[in-house]
Amino acid sequence: MSGKLAEDFAAFKIAEEGQVARLQDLSYQIKDLVGKYDDAVRDLEIERVARRFTQQDADESRVKLEELQQSMERSSFVLVLIDADADSYIFKDEYYADGEGGRKAALDLSDEVRSFLQASRPELPECPIVIKAYANEAGLSHFLASSGVINAPRDLVEFAKDFTQASEYTDFLLVGSGKDRADKKISEAGCFKQFVGNPTCRHIIFGACHDNSYVRLLEDYAHDDSMVDRVTLLHGLSVGREFRDLPFKSFQIENVFKSIPVQNLAPTPELSASVSSSSSWASTVGSKADASSRKTKAERSVRLNSAGCRIDDHLRKPKQQALDSWQHKVVLAKEGKRPRQRSIQKQDPPVASPGDVPNAIGSLALEHLQLEEPCGPTLRCHFHDGKTVDKKWTCCGAHVSGPPCKHEKNHQPEQSTLKEMSSRWQYSVTPVTTRRDARKAVVIDCEMGTAASGDCELIRLTIIDYFSSQVLIDNLVWPDVLMSHLNTKYSGVTWKSMREARNAKRCIFGRKNARALIWKFVGPETIIIGHGANSDLTSLRWIHPRIIDTLVVEGNNHDGNTQGLSLKKLAELRLQRVIQKGKEHDSLEDAIATRDLLHWNVMRMVVGNTEA
């Protein structure tokens, strides 16, 4: 019996040992799984933290990318490169003959480029157009002078100045002598290679297709479709043969550049000495003009004096009566050899004496005596701050024909064609509207600058609701014409504030868009209220049927006399309010004052104390 128990115990022991071994093995497996689980949990936590940081970095990168894209869009521009040394890119004669030809050439070229972009690249017309024209000053100036395009070499410098000053985006750069000077500015380490890969330069218009040497430059980009799409060739009257094989698109501008080669006349002896040191331009001309254009035409040569002024060869001999008349003016009347502009005293307007106006007889003698004297350019006066009252400027007291009080040297009356006048003075009538938010009455006030044409140009617009005083519009207006100045002294508007508003997309572009914005709140039945509202509506070129002018209302209180009834004076008198502190205006402040001034008169009219 005991033996059987021992055997059973031994068997049980063996079984238990096996069970223990299996439990130990299971324990080891569990420990291993727990360790792996802990590792997985730690890895998951690390991944979660890393993902959080990655997401944060991604969000920051996305914000930076959006800021960069917005910055790039604000800084985007279209670049126009012109090799102005070439016959193909010489501007038409009328630009050199005009006193402001450089300015007109720059604006017309910019308009032509914008028209091309509107037709072929509709996503680009809003980008500024940067124009850079390069030319050899010595060579090109003498070439144009000898060809009769300009009167003297120094005229090219004036043309370049006007071109450069036409806009902040236009430059006519006169480089050193030598044909390759302009080439290097455009190619190699110049503008083209600098901007062709620049993302802010959205497109390049390449105006140097006369010289096959530029083909080597463009070939480096001909196999890159993105670069081919970024460059357009501007063809002139002659195009290098190898340019025809390039894959770039092309177009022509026939309204700005000459369509026929410049006929180069033989240089005069006076010019030969100065040109001899610049043989590189002679070789350039030789490569551009045919042999017939270089034949000597002595009978058409232009003689210049030491000052670079043209000398006419033949003037008819004046009559003795003309000489006696001139001698009387010079000796007896003690007038100078040249008519001079007399200084104007503030209190006394000038009285023209008979000697001040050269008669037809004396003018011929004057031509003879002044033949060798250089005549400076006559500049249009843009810089009188005041208005003319009783033939005097209110800013300085000078007579209307007297010298300006700021920058310019002489007065010159504006001369415009009928087409130019009609384009600048197109008026629009308030259209019929079905908008529910059209107001019953609004108050308007505008600030104006002076355009290059001399016209008053809208630069700030403010509209408020008459009944609620809600500000409907208060924005700067970016002019769509060339400006002379912003009249900052009185308007308070600066070019810096203009550019900031444009970059932030807070300004209105042009008076046409300004009118369209006004018509969102104004219909034909809306009453427009302003102080001197004719000036505001004139700057907008706007005709409206219902107007209340507080200047007229106050004039009725003064027997119809509106003189001296400025808004500043009336605000202080009627409203006990000081506005326009200093001299600068604030159109919003003025609009509110105009609204309150009319309300003051309305309340007085209710009780019968005004004739308004």
UniProtKB/TrEMBL annotation:
Pfam family, one: DUF7923
PANTHER family the record matches: CCCH ZINC FINGER DNA BINDING PROTEIN (AFU_ORTHOLOGUE AFUA_5G12760)
Species classification: Eukaryota, Fungi, Dikarya, Ascomycota, Pezizomycotina
Exonuclease domain residues: 440-607
Protein known as: Exonuclease domain-containing protein
InterPro entries from the UniProt entry: DUF7923, Ribonucl_H, RNaseH-like_sf, RNaseH_sf
Superkingdom assignment: Eukaryota
Biased composition (Basic and acidic residues): 291-302
Chain residue ranges for the region called Disordered: 283-302, 332-357
Residues making up the signal peptide according to the UniProt record: none
Entries under Gene3D superfamilies matching the protein: Ribonuclease H-like superfamily/Ribonuclease H (3.30.420.10)
Molecular-function annotations in GO: nucleic acid binding
